[in-house]
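Lecture notes, part 5. Sequence design as translation. It can be helpful to think of inverse folding as translation between two languages: the language of shapes and the language of residues. The source text, in structure tokens, appears below.
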């Protein structure tokens, strides 16, 4: 996992849960560098410790981390990536080619997920996510944080795509300026299950 995620965990906890929670989570942990990759187990440990220290559900911590990471951490560290596009709908399809491919070339052990992102309808995007990490909740948060970075809200329509030995996620995001509510609804017509064979 890329070191930027570990740094974002620390920053997110300070911003959203306070210094005492952050200290409890990171006490005894090594310094996580932006230029390095770390074992996935270390992130899982930090998330579990954060949930316990903040007295929150693990999914709530992971989702909040995703929102914070896109809206604040990525936006602060990589403003040029965001400034090149006027909307989240224009930005999101560039993530795999411009950002994840760069990470794979410079920090191979970071192993970002595979994303296939394409425009959908007038305002949306379709995101197909594939990763053995199964951090679908983090992806939902990242897309919400990206929409917020552009002053927009996102409406989520989710269908999990299960395949033998791995789990993916397909998201449909409707991105609209000024929308206050974020709604989630499942899309059974887009659900794909593995065959029995």
């Amino acid at each position: 996992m890329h070191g930027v995620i570990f740094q974002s965990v620390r920053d997110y906890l300070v911003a959203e849960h306070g210094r005492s929670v952050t200290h409890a989570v990171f006490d005894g942990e090594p310094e996580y560098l932006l230029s390095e990759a770390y074992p996935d187990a270390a992130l899982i440990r930090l998330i579990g410790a954060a949930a316990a220290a903040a007295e929150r559900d693990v999914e709530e911590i992971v989702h909040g981390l995703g929102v914070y990471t896109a809206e604040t951490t990525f936006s602060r560290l990589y403003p040029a990536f965001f400034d090149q596009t006027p909307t989240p709908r224009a930005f999101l399809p560039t993530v795999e080619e411009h950002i994840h491919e760069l990470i794979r070339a410079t920090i191979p052990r970071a192993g970002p997920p595979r994303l296939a992102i394409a425009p959908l309808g007038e305002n949306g995007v379709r995101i197909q996510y594939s990763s053995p990490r199964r951090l679908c909740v983090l992806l939902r948060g990242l897309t919400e944080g990206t929409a917020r970075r552009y002053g927009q809200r996102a409406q989520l329509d989710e269908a999990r795509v299960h395949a033998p030995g791995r789990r993916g996620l397909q998201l449909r995001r409707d991105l609209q300026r000024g929308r206050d509510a974020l709604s989630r609804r499942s899309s059974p017509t887009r659900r794909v299950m593995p065959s029995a064979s």
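The translated text above is only one of many valid answers, since several sequences can fold into similar shapes. The first helix runs from residue 3 to 17.
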